[in-house]
């Protein structure tokens, strides 16, 4: 009666199995592979300097990753792609405005923002969770519309009430009429780079200049070792395919850094905001850790089947609300990280596209409505922003018009969400009908 | 009696009570603040007429069971293509003959029809494959189509001077209809005054005609089948009705009405709006029919008419009332629209219940 | 086994909206005892279990009468969670499993073993880490108790149903305080070999001192493993028998009993038995009511009953012939082959159908009575419409006339043909369904569960209507029903369906034992 017994397969069967596996890998990761090719083509057509590209991508990955990671937990709890993170972004932005008003700058200012925004976004998350529980099965469209709704409330507060009903006296922030926050808020003399704090940035032409290649090669060697260890550890968390891919990537890093050590080049221009990266790594670790806890397990149970979870005594609605609250808090922090790097923001616009671009990035990394991992989120950010960087120049090269590239990347964001959702719904329908057939 | 009142109250819905109350409040304020009532009424009438057909486009979608058509921007895009092509045609043959604005308007509708039919059928086919998630997918199909059209507007070979930028590539963001005399061609048809109030007769005749045709259609064999398919798919299968076909018919009619609707809108507005223009129009139409009393599963022509009047009425009255209070509240009209529009959609989503 | 009773239910009764569904049930179960509960559908088995588990449906409708004692203590159970805490477990008929979890994760669902970590000191219980190694060990122990050698780290998706069932059982056994475990029709989904290993497992659980309530309709299984057997019928406690003191035949008779007297019918002069409808090897994929190869012949002018227990496939036959669920096989109407899987074709062959699912399939709840009556004729026969070339319009006058006629003929109580059907009573709704079927001028009328969910007076009216149609208009009727009593009261022949096949065809006045045996999947005495 043993089911999991390994059976001995002959050589030819092994070959067929590998072929099947590769085919399965390709079909399951079609979106990601497509964007990998698209990004590569765009890069080649754009004819960008690799170093400029690297500079740009490092900045973009470090400012967007946190936001994208904030989407993972609701997916785990079966609530789909959380378009309501826009509310978290609004909360973060609100706090940036207040802290700027109070004149607290730098890292302490950013930390204060993060601390103060937490209860606010927990509250928003609670309300959103309540709403989602009333619209089960339609969470995504509800989240999207909620974001539009909240946009109205946000404008009401910051455009019409602040300065008037809510007193705030600040010549720099408030419009000349005395009511409403100005349409752009400049953080240059305050919170800009509060977290990316230059002292902790690798690209500084000081002591740290020669260290990057060394750090990279250390990571290369250590990473390879870790991969091999994981592959041979008994839990079999790594497939051979992943092992080879991982080692290849790390080997590239190693070659690059050895080249850097010997030759040296522009690479030191690349600013790596170490503290931000540590924060992102911390979040990754937290999400991984959280998925191994009781609450995390409850979320996965609820995500798979609300009914079964309820029968087992799990408080389904409560778990769902907690998932949204966590996501909301992460999103508000994520947006603060995003804006402190941007250095200035449009008061009534910079949060609007956060949901769209974060969700699109996650999906491009290979996530679906029901499954999203940390790796997918990070890979997605990289691929999506590669496209973002290269498409205007590629558009100019191909059509003599950078506008085409800009329109194209927006279309890609909408399109990838539409296609993924449609594929998911279709699959669900097919599964239901095939269950009837059997 | 008391039960009757509470029952009808609850069936009307809390959100609608609030909105109706808000509307009444605005109207009272308008009177109290001595705003120009006839001016407000005139522009309300125009707004209702110009949005009517677009809101009506929601009806066949809801009735056939796909829910409010968040993807009506597909129809809108077809209408825009029809409008642009008609203008281009008028430009190209202007040395041979001149069309009157009215004829040009109907030519635009005729040109947009084949596009809308084709788009509607394929869109319906897609929605049949994603049953249960139509609203979300419709929204993103709409967004995608609008954003890919932005690229298309850059490349489509329209050369008429009112369309093309004098330098550079592509079509303008707003295209004026005044040169060809299409502006307000429906509004002005048979229009008359009651005191200071201008009644856009042609606009209302057109809208009424659309409603009448819809009413008749819902009483045809196909219309009954469509209603049944939307109301209870399993019943309909058993009654020999092809549910998927009915849903495709509903989607197609909705798309076609979207195309006609944007042309009606544009002739009143005086411009064809491209690029971002059609992006968020579906949400206005969805909100309007919901405010009229429809749910995501049930809707009638009455809901269309009441909803359009109420929602567009609020938009017209809100701005001057807010401005009359204090000049600082210049954005109040737009903000209240956002809150009401999305609030009522959210309300309808929570009322629909989970799966 | 002279110990005291572990569970005792005394004088249990339950009333739903004035209808008594359970009356004075007494039940005692000792530790280590396997106690069988048998009865037809609607006998009250599930209501009794709902009471035992404190389901909200019981308490939201006014609670129950009588008392429940566990270990001699009087208890009131208000939620499934409380039942669980008292040591009562349940193996559900539908699996409560999460497919992408491993067997361990399913067994320990919401009872995971936890170990503290840095964060849990700050944020409490919920943030403790899962202790997979001890979870695996405990799952292993539970599986070993059932002598199942499947690996606990295998994911559930794709396992054979037998293993899923054992996973469910292991989950119950793993609960440390488990005293009593309820098996609700556990063998219904299993193949024969799986079923016998399940019965073995049940025996070994009982030997470990856990009491078992075994709900089933398979009488041979009951006789094989139960120590005591309680028979319920129409919400009443008929008998409790020791295994040695009874046999399959007696149980069958007790289970069915005679309920309804035959309705007064004129004796038909059966002219010549003329075959009207032949069904050969019909297979219907209807979830929950699979038909697995039915052969049946229907004669002109008769009322044929189709009976059997729920889930055995009786309802699937009519649904298959009408094209509502995917089906295979041969159906001949008057010698002509019927194209399956298309409701339009079936209707064009003068078949009409009144569905068992009145609310789901039978009616357009928000539409008017008259629209409900004519819609099939509009869609399939182009009647009641005015044609203008490719366009059509409802002919409201002829619709109204026809609806009024039907209301009068079938005596539908309503405010008028424009009334919305959801405001009608159940019996009148059923008549609307019949009216729609009749509007199609059918040659053969399929009627499924015509009296389900309607009150007693209305039941009789509906049945009388059917008899009238048969006698006065000579309509051939095929009536499917779970209520044997009503089948026996109006039909000419009754086909009993078990396991998706016709187990046998009986006359209405055949003995209770024969009906009982056929329904529980035994060979009738005559056949043996």
Detailed description of the structure:
- The complex is a heterotrimer of chains A (438), B (355) and C (528).
- Chain A contains 16 helices and two strands.
- Chain A has 438 residues and is an all-alpha fold.
- Chain A has a two-stranded antiparallel ribbon with strand order 1-2.
- Chain B has 355 residues and is mainly alpha-helical.
- Chain B has 15 helices and four strands.
- By secondary structure, chain C is of the alpha/beta class.
- Chain C folds into two domains: 27-96 and 161-256, Rossmann fold (3-Layer(aba) Sandwich), CATH 3.40.50; 275-519, P-loop containing nucleotide triphosphate hydrolases (Rossmann fold), CATH 3.40.50.
- Chain C has 19 helices and 24 strands.
- Chain C has a six-stranded mixed β-sheet with strand order 6-9-10-3-11-12. In chain C, strands 18-21-22-15-23-24 form a six-stranded mixed β-sheet, sandwiched between helices.
- In chain C, a hairpin with a 2-residue loop joins β11 (228-233) and β12 (236-242).
- The chains are: A mainly alpha (438), B mainly alpha (355), C alpha/beta (528).
- The A-B interface holds A 131, 134-138, 140-142, 144-146, 148-149, 151-153, 155-156, 159-160, 164, 177-180, 399-401, 403-404, 407-408, 410-411, 414-415, 417-418, 421-422, 424-426, 428-429 and B 70, 126, 129-133, 135-137, 139-141, 143-144, 147-148, 150-151, 154, 169-170, 283, 326, 328-329, 331-332, 334-339, 341-343, 345-346, 349-350, 352, 354-355.
């Amino acid at each position: 009666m043993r089911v999991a017994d390994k059976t001995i397969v002959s050589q030819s069967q092994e070959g067929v199995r590998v072929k099947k596996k590769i085919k399965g890998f390709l079909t399951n990761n079609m979106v990601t592979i497509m964007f990998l090719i698209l990004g590569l083509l765009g890069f080649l057509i754009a004819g960008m300097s690799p170093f400029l590209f690297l500079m740009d991508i490092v900045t973009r990955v470090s400012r967007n990753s946190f936001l994208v990671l904030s989407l993972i937990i609701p997916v785990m709890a079966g609530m789909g792609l959380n378009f309501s993170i826009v509310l978290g972004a609004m909360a973060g932005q609100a706090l940036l405005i207040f802290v700027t008003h109070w004149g607290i700058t730098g890292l302490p200012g950013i930390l204060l923002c993060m601390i103060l925004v937490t209860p606010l976004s927990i509250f928003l998350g609670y309300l959103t969770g309540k709403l989602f529980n009333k619209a089960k099965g339609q969470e995504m469209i509800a989240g999207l519309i909620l974001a539009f709704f909240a946009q109205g409330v946000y404008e009401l507060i910051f455009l019409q009430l602040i300065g008037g009903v809510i007193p705030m006296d600040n010549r720099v922030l408030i419009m000349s009429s005395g009511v409403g926050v100005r349409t752009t808020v400049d953080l240059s003399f305050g919170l800009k780079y509060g977290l990316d704090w230059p002292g902790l940035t690798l690209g500084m032409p000081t002591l740290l200049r020669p260290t990057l290649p060394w750090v990279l090669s250390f990571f290369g060697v250590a990473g390879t070792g870790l991969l091999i260890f994981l592959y041979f550890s008994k839990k079999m968390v790594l497939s051979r395919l992943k092992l080879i891919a991982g080692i290849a990537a790390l080997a590239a890093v190693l070659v690059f850094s050895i080249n850097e050590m010997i030759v040296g080049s522009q690479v030191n221009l690349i600013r790596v905001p170490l503290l931000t990266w540590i924060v992102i790594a911390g979040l990754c670790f937290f999400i991984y850790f959280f998925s191994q806890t009781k609450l995390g397990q409850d979320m996965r149970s609820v995500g798979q089947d609300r009914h079964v979870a309820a029968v087992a005594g799990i408080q389904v609605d409560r778990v769902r609300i907690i998932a949204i609250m966590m996501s909301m808090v992460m999103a508000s922090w994520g947006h603060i990280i995003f804006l402190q790097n941007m250095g200035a923001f449009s008061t009534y616009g910079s949060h609007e596209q956060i949901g769209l671009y974060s969700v699109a990035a996650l999906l491009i990394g290979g996530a679906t409505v029901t499954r999203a991992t940390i790796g997918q989120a990070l890979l997605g950010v990289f691929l999506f922003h590669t496209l973002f960087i290269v498409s205007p120049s590629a558009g100019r090269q191909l059509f003599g018009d950078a506008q085409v590239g800009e329109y194209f990347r927006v279309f890609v964001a909408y399109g990838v969400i539409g296609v993924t959702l449609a594929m998911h719904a279709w699959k669900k329908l097919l599964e239901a009908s095939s269950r009837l057939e059997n | 009696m008391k039960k009757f009142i509470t029952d009808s109250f609850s069936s009307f819905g809390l959100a609608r009570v609030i909105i109706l109350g808000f509307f009444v409040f605005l109207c009272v304020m308008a009177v109290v603040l001595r705003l120009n009532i006839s001016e407000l009424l005139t522009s309300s009438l125009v707004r209702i007429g110009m949005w009517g057909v677009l809101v009506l486009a929601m009806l066949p979608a809801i009735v056939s069971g796909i829910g409010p058509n968040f993807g009506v921007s597909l129809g809108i895009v077809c209408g825009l293509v029809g409008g642009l092509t008609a203008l281009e045609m008028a430009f190209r043959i202007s040395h041979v003959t001149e069309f009157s604005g009215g004829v040009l308007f109907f030519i635009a509708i005729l040109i947009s029809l084949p596009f809308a039919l084709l788009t509607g059928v394929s869109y319906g086919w897609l929605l049949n494959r994603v049953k249960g998630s139509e609203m979300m997918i419709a929204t993103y199909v709409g967004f995608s189509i609008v954003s890919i059209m932005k690229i298309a507007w850059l490349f489509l070979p329209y050369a008429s001077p009112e369309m093309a930028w004098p330098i550079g590539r592509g079509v303008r963001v707003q295209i004026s209809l005044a040169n060809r005399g299409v502006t307000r061609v429906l509004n002005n048809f048979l229009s008359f005054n009651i005191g200071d109030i201008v009644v856009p007769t042609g606009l209302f005749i057109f809208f009424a005609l659309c409603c009448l045709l819809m009413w008749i259609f819902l009483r045809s064999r196909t219309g009954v089948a469509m209603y049944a398919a939307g109301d209870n798919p399993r019943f309909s299968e058993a009654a020999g009705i092809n549910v998927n076909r009915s849903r495709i018919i509903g989607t197609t009619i909705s798309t076609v009405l979207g195309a006609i609707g944007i042309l009606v809108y544009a002739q009143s507005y005086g411009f064809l709006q491209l690029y971002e223009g059609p992006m968020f129009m579906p949400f206005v139409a969805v909100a309007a029919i919901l405010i009229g009393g429809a749910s995501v599963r049930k809707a009638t022509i009455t809901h269309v008419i009441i909803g359009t009047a109420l929602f567009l009425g609020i938009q017209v009255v809100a701005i001057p009332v807010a401005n009359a209070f204090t000049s600082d509240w210049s954005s109040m009209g737009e903000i209240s629209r956002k809150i009401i529009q999305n609030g009522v959609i959210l309300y309808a989503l929570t009322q629909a219940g989970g799966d | 086994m002279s110990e005291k009773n572990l569970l005792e239910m005394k004088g249990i009764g339950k009333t739903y909206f004035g209808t008594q569904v359970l009356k004075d049930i007494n039940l005692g179960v000792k530790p280590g005892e396997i106690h069988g509960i048998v009865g037809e559908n609607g006998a009250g088995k599930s209501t009794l279990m709902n009471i035992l588990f404190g389901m909200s449906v019981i308490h939201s409708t006014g609670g129950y009468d009588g008392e429940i004692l566990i270990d001699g203590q009087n208890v009131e159970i208000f939620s499934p969670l409380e039942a669980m805490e008292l040591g009562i477990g349940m193996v559900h008929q539908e699996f409560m499993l999460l497919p992408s979890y491993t067997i361990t994760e399913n067994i320990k669902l919401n009872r995971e073993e936890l170990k503290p970590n840095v964060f849990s000191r700050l944020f409490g219980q919920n943030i403790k880490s899962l202790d997979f190694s001890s979870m695996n060990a405990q799952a292993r122990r539970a599986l070993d108790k059932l002598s199942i050698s499947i690996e606990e780290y295998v994911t559930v998706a794709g396992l054979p149903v037998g293993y899923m069932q054992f996973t469910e059982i292991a989950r119950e056994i793993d609960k440390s305080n488990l005293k009593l475990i309820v098996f609700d029709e556990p063998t219904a989904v299993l193949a024969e070999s799986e079923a016998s290993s399940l019965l073995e497992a049940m025996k070994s659980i009982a030997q470990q001192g856990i009491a078992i309530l075994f709900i089933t309709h398979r009488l041979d299984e009951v006789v094989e493993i139960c120590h005591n057997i309680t028979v319920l019928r129409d919400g009443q406690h008929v008998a409790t028998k020791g295994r040695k003191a009874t046999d399959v035949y007696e149980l069958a008779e007790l289970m069915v009993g005679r309920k309804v007297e035959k309705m007064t019918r004129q004796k038909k002069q059966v002219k010549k038995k003329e075959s009207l409808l032949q069904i050969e090897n019909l297979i219907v994929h209807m979830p929950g009511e699979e038909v697995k190869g039915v052969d049946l012949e229907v004669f002109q002018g008769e009322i044929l009953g189709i009976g059997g227990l729920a889930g055995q496939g009786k309802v699937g036959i009519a649904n298959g012939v009408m094209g509502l669920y995917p089906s295979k096989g041969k159906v001949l109407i008057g010698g002509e082959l019927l194209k399956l899987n298309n409701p339009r074709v079936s209707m064009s062959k003068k078949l009409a159908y009144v569905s068992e699912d009145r609310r789901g399939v039978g009616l357009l709840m928000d539409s008017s009575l008259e629209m409900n009556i004519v819609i099939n004729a509009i869609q399939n026969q182009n009647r009641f419409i005015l044609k203008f070339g490719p366009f059509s319009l409802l002919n409201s006058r002829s619709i109204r006339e026809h609806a009024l006629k039907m209301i009068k003929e079938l005596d539908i109580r309503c405010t008028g043909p424009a009334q919305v059907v959801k405001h009608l009573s159940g019996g009148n709704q059923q008549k609307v369904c019949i009216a729609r079927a009749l509007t199609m001028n059918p040659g053969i009328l399929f009627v499924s569960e015509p009296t389900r969910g309607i009150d007693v007076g209305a039941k009789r009216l509906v049945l009388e209507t059917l008899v009238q149609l048969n006698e006065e208009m000579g309509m051939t009727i095929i009536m499917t029903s779970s209520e044997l009593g009503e089948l026996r009261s109006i039909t000419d022949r009754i086909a009993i369906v078990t396991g998706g096949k016709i187990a046998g065809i009986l006359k209405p006045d055949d003995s209770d034992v024969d009906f009982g045996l056929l329904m529980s999947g035994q060979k009738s005495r005559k056949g043996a």
